[in-house]
Amino acid sequence: MSKRGSYAKGVAKREEILERALEVVAQHGYQGASVKEIAEAVSLSQAGLLHYFTSKEELFAEILRTRDKHDQAAFAEPESMVDPTAFRRSYLAVVRYNAQVLGLVHLFARMNVDAASPEHPAHAYFRERGVGLRGMLSDIARTAWEGETGPAGMRPEQFAAIVQAVTDGLQAQWMLDPEIDMAGTIDALLAALIPGSAAPGDAD
Questions:
Q1: Which keywords annotate this record (predicted)?
Q2: Mean of the pLDDT values across residues 60-79?
Q3: Mean pLDDT (whole number) for 16-30
Q4: 49-84: buried (b, 16+ CB within 10 Å) or exposed (e) per residue?
Q5: Domain assignments of the chain as residue spans, ordered by start
Q6: Per-residue pLDDT, 200
Q7: In the chain, what are the helix, strand and coil shares in percent, each to the nearest 5?
Q8: What is the pLDDT of residue 202?
Q9: Helix axes 102-114, 3-32, angle to 10 degrees
Q10: Contact of 59 with 80, CB cutoff 8 Å
């Protein structure tokens, strides 16, 4: 087999691993999804699995990247990057979906803390994700406010940081108390900070 064919086969196997691992973690969570269980799901030994990833932590970071791609494909409307109403619908759809996949929420929350160390394999993922999310939120705020100032003189960057912090914080609260309405709470926040982004009931 040529080097190009071998590389393509390796990429395909890596993608297969990530898709199956995503299912395993969604079902069993961070603690329950061992390298052994994921390896068995794709008919590999543990050593064979780690041939494609340098560590369990890198594997889990890539699982989160794969989750983000799925969320983008499933929930992002074409206008959601520029239209506040479309953004609000898409963002809340992701939040509601997360309430159905406790294992992935646990994985995200656990690694989000561990990845604070620059040496952690997931550090780059969380930094890149945070920068991208806050950039998008800042742009949405500027569009909704038609400028650089929102309610009570809030700046777009402050809006972005607040929405990210509330989303991550609500996930932590929800893991302890599943009765907490993550989507409803975030919807109320968005309604207060970007008025007019949706008529009553549009985001339900």
A1: DNA-binding, Transcription, Transcription regulation
A2: 89
A3: 86
A4: bbebbeebbbbbbbbbebbbeebeeebbeeebeebb
A5: 57-193
A6: 47
A7: 75, 0, 25
A8: 52
A9: 100
A10: no
* Tokens, residue 50: 């780690």
Instruction: Indicate the Cα dihedral angle 180, 182, 188, 194, nearest 10°.
Output: 160
103 and 32 in contact (C-beta within 8 Å)? yes
Tell me which of 28-37, 83-92, 108-117, 151-160 is least confident: 28-37
Give yes or no for a contact between 159 and 137, defined as CB atoms under 8 angstroms apart.
Answer: yes
What is d(CA 76, CA 38) in angstroms, rounded to the nearest whole number?
29
**What is the CATH code of the structural domain delimited by 57-193?**
1.10.357
Average pLDDT in the chain: 88
| Integer CA distances (angstroms), 116 to 112, 122, 125, 133, in order | 7, 9, 11, 17
Q: What angle do CA 195, 162, 84 make, to 5 degrees?
A: 35
Taking the C-alpha atoms of residue 92 and residue 96, their distance in angstroms, rounded to an integer, is 6
Element (H, E) at 17: helix 3-32
For the ranges 44-48, 72-76, 99-103, 150-154, the maximum mean pLDDT occurs at: 150-154
Q: For the chain, how many residues are written?
A: 204
